[in-house]
Design a protein that fits this description.
single chain; alpha/beta; five-stranded parallel sheet; four-stranded parallel sheet; 39% helix; 14% strand; binds phosphoric acid mono(formamide)ester
């Protein structure tokens, strides 16, 4: 693994090794027992799209491994004067950075930068377009594993909401299948479902309603309604969306009593999820955030090891 751009070509063994490494790094991820495995390494966060969780947790992950961190500010950078993304990467490489964390609106930008990077550099996608958000997929799997154990084949998982535009849903579906999940249910209005032939959702069932998707479910993965797409007229109104697809406590009661609820954030409270669910006893949303630091530490360590080994 020289770069981490998506999850579809990670073997089950490689994926589980990353989850094991992240689990072992939990104490350091929470700020205890500092580690210095990346001492002398420079990590550059290149975010061309807004982020709270991913950017902050990559920064903390790098720092808690002893690395130096550059938080590149796209808005005040020379990309505003026309400098290309590849030239930007090469200039930051020339200052000694060797691990690049890239978020961009356009799918495939992390892959293009990986292709242009020096042999000793690693690139991690921090989310590109609708394509992929691999570390979110990994942290979601770690969170499920902590609550439901390592045998994913006996679980039922529902992914609910704006699946069409969601890179998180794509990375989650890929990882769930790799880990052996057999019962993946997709629940969304027709306008927000993925294309029927998308490989990453192969084998999933499209539920006729949210109620149908939730029946005896073990894991409910809610997605953000990407309101920046609302002018495309994909949803008639936020009120109707909540009525038909919002997760309320009454609806959640159709899942198993010990079902867990995930959401990658940022949440639209009262649109895709009720406050009482987001902040309720079945929510593991903040555990996902904590796991994000550990997962990103494991990924940065693995990439550095593969480049220096
Ligand atoms: N889950 C996620 O990617 O959140 P941010 O956009 O805040 O990074």
């Amino acid at each position: 693994m020289r770069h981490l751009l998506h999850l579809h070509d990670l073997s089950r063994n490689a994926l589980e090794n990353l989850l094991d490494a992240a689990q072992a790094l939990r104490p350091q991820a929470l700020g205890r027992n500092a580690k210095a495995s990346l001492h002398g390494v420079t990590v550059a966060n290149l975010f061309f799209e807004p982020s709270t969780r991913t950017r902050t947790s990559f920064q903390l992950a790098a720092q808690r491994l002893g690395a130096d961190v550059i938080n590149f500010e796209a808005e005040s950078s020379s990309t505003r004067k026309g400098e290309t993304l590849v030239d930007t990467l090469r200039n930051i490489e020339a200052m000694g950075a060797s691990l690049f964390v890239v978020r961009h609106t356009h799918s495939s930008v992390p892959a293009a930068l990986a292709a242009a990077a020096a042999a000793g550099s690693g690139v991690v996608s921090a989310g590109d377009g609708r394509h992929s958000h691999p570390t979110q997929g990994l942290l979601d799997m770690l969170t499920i594993r902590q609550h439901k154990g390592e045998d994913f084949s006996r679980l039922s998982v529902a992914i609910v909401g704006d699946i069409r535009h969601s890179r998180v849903a794509r990375s989650d579906a890929q990882a769930l299948r790799t880990l052996g999940l057999r019962d993946l249910r997709l629940a969304a209005p027709d306008t927000l479902l993925p294309d029927a032939d998308e490989a990453c959702f192969a084998g999933a069932t499209v539920a006729s309603s949210l109620d149908a998707a939730l029946q005896n479910c073990d894991v409910v993965m809610m997605l953000r309604l990407q309101r920046e797409r609302m002018d495309e007229g994909l949803v008639s109104s936020l009120e109707e969306y909540y009525r038909d697809w919002g997760l309320s406590p009454e609806r959640l009661a159709q899942a198993k009593p010990d079902a867990i609820v995930l959401h990658p954030g940022p949440m639209n409270r009262g649109v895709e999820i009720a406050d009482a669910v987001a902040d309720g006893p079945q929510s593991v949303i903040l555990e996902q955030v904590s796991n994000g630091v550990a997962v990103r530490m494991a990924v940065l360590e693995a990439l550095h090891r593969n480049h220096s080994g």
